[in-house]
Amino acid sequence: MSSTSFSQEKIFLPPPKKSKFSLDEALDVRKSIRDYPSLPLTLEGVSNLLW
Length: 51
Description:
The protein is mainly alpha-helical and about 50 residues long. It has helices at about 25-30, 45-50. About 25% of the residues lie in helices and about 0% in strands. The N and C termini lie far apart (about 35 Å).
């Protein structure tokens, strides 16, 4: 049986950037892009995704 341990270290994310669009407007004009770069996601990127 294996156990899973989680780090107790806190990661502080930068605040999300303000957008000129509301969430509804952003969803209305969204586009799918299938070509993703092989670069690691930054903490700023994580912060904006989790907002």
